[in-house]
Amino acid sequence: MEKDSTEIKGIRNKHYFFSQRFLFDFIQRHPDASLDMFCLEFWRDSMPEHLKELWDITFSKIQELDPSVEKIEVDKLPYTVRVIDEFQTIVVITLPVPQEMTESYYVGILFQKIDKNSEPNFRYFTLEFHNKRKSAICELSECKHTLWGFTKNLNEDEFIEEIKSIVSD
Length: 169
Known about the structure:
Layout: H1 13-29, H2 31-39, H3 41-44, H4 47-65, E1 79-85, E2 88-94, E3 104-112, E4 121-131, E5 134-140, E6 145-152, H5 156-168
Antiparallel strand pairs: 1-2, 2-3, 3-4, 4-5, 5-6
C-alpha cells in the first residue's frame, strides 16, 4: 500500500495542509472576496485574525482524522499587500517558521484583473523550506504543483520580486 504524502516522517500536517490545501481552496472559491478582504480598509485590521481562524479550522479538520496531529499555535498570520499596478496585486502571508520540506515560509497570491470590473484571476505561490540555506519557489494550481526553482532563503520583499519575475516572463 502506498503511503499518503502526509504520512512522511517530519511533515507537520497543519502547516502543510494550511498552505497547500485549505488557503488555496478558500482563495479559489472566493477570489474577488479574498482580494477585497486583503485590500479594503474595512477588513485590513481584522484580516490577520481571520487568517488565524482559518489556521485553527485547518487544525480541527485534520484532528478529526488524526487525533495526534501537532498543534502549532499562532496569535495571528500577518500579511502584506503590494499593488503592482491597477490590475495586479500581490498578497504575501507570513506563516510560522517552517521546519521540514513542504512547509512554507510564505504564501504569495497574485491577483490579476483584466479590467476594473472583472473578477480577478489568481496565481498561488509558496516559498517552501528545502534546508537551512535553500528554499523552493513553487506554484500551485488546481491540477498541479510547479517547482520554479531553488533559491537562497528569501525575505518577503525578495519573494515578491521573484513572483513578479515569474509572471512577467
